[in-house]
Amino acid sequence: xxxxxxxxxxxYDAGWVAKxxxxxxxxxxxxxxxxxxxFQEKSDNARALIEKEFAWEKIARETVEKYxxxx
Length: 71
Prior knowledge:
Helices cover 72% and strands 0% of the residues.
């Protein structure tokens, strides 16, 4: 929750999200350790997230669309 990526991570179940406090980071690390059996699943979800939301083609298309709005 300390970055804009937290919502993506939650949506895609691509990892563990922590607030920007030591306690929250600690709790997320403990949860990740306790859920080690989910590492591969979350890794696969993270890859899908990146491929869908941050592919160069998508970024380029969105950038062009924004430029067109300004012209």
